[in-house]
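FORM 7B: Structural annotation worksheet

SECTION A. Query
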Amino acid sequence: MMKTIPALTELPGSQDELPYRSLTAEEARRVREENPSVSPWWVIAGQVAVGLGVALAAWGLTGRQNVGWSAGYGALAVVIPAAVFARGLTGRFSSLNAGTAAFGFMLWEMVKIALTVAMLVVAPRWVSELSWPALLVGLVLTMKVYWIALAYVPKGSRRTRAN
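SECTION B. Predicted structure
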């Protein structure tokens, strides 16, 4: 026997007791103030800093300049596509309505992936004596900045206004 999930209209209680309600303009404004979004440019700045640090650490730890360049190129293979993606998402077209926002997100995500793959394909030509392990370390550590940015979301102003 197959179980079925009842529709909201079939649940006990009145129709007025839906599990959600619309926010007023004031409530929506307050929610936005208390939960600010992270700027994609802030994340990219963090990626640049981490990438530079990884490249310098790789060079310093190994004493080989090509390992530093390889790690730096791995970081660039994250930063440049992420910057293109952020620029595409912050453009006027991507914010016209929900449909163009979704289409823009998918389009720019595909561009980002294609650009990353293209940069990895040409890496042996652009970086002399390429070290793939160093490149992958730079790429992965730089990519993890997204998670660090989510962990350190700036807190909104918690001030309350006297009405």
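SECTION C. Observations
Residues 98-126 form the longest helix (29 residues). The chain is about 65% helix and 0% strand.

SECTION D. Sign-off
Analyst initials: ____
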